[in-house]
Amino acid sequence: MQPAPAVFRFAPSPNGELHLGHAYSVLVNHRMAREAGGEFLLRIEDIDQARCTREYERQIEDDLTFLGVDWDVAPRRQSEHFADYAAALEALADAELIYPGFMSRGEIRAFAQRYEDDEGTRWPRDPDGAPLYPALDRDLSSRQRERKMRDGERFAWRLDTAKAVAMLGTLTFAETGLAPEAGGGEVVAKPLEWGDVVLGRMETPTSYHLSVVVDDAVQGVTHVVRGRDLFPATSIHRLLQALLGLPVPRYHHHELILGPDGRKLSKSAGDTAIRALREAGLGAEDIRRMVGLPAAPPAGSLSRESSARG
Ligand code: GLU
Question: Among its keywords, does the record have Secreted (predicted)?
């Protein structure tokens, strides 16, 4: 029997143009997939329907083709699979692992500020620098919750992270991108650093964290290759995989391509956008050189003869 193929994926959000950072990420990812004789999938992470557009999606596919990246099956578009995420959210609700959090982002910030003014110590921040959810309403009775919801108060479904961690104990994942001295190897997940993250919203029954773990499982992803900025989020992903009984891919978090100011490139990166570089007459080889990658292997030398999944 043939061993199951390795499955890699690139998962951009169509809320802006791809830039040099994406080019580096997808080229490393695609190359690793082809060298492993694996499949390479494209997933369109468009749950934020207010910011994602089909126009950006088309442009992403066009830029990838220009870069020489191909994918093996039709892209999975997250906005077409809300029922999958809703089912996962429901399973977590049945296990009493999520609760409605009624504080808005502004209220959380104001709470942290008040705490810092009163106590003279810093309110804890998550790895992205946002104040942790105060979780005051984690302890509301079900009657109080229902009343607030009936009164139309806005809320988001939040994970009771401490409860989940107490249930599951220590979890680890394999990290091949970062050297052991930089935190790689078999990594112990630290989901408590994130506090009670949002897993669903009133209008959208999911969040980035929830849909990414559901989709990696649905698509049979075995290798997640992405930027180092998402390394801390892997701790939450690992916890959700354990809660939902999903398989755990291997992770490879690569270095980021930084702008001249030493900061991460953003979606509004202007002249680092692949589109702008193409319009300025640069070719795929120029882009490879700009992100420090060697010339592309000769056409066909690494591509799969046929796709196992069609
Ligand atoms: N959609 C995410 C982004 O564009 C990437 C998610 C992932 O690779 O896990 O940053």
Answer: no
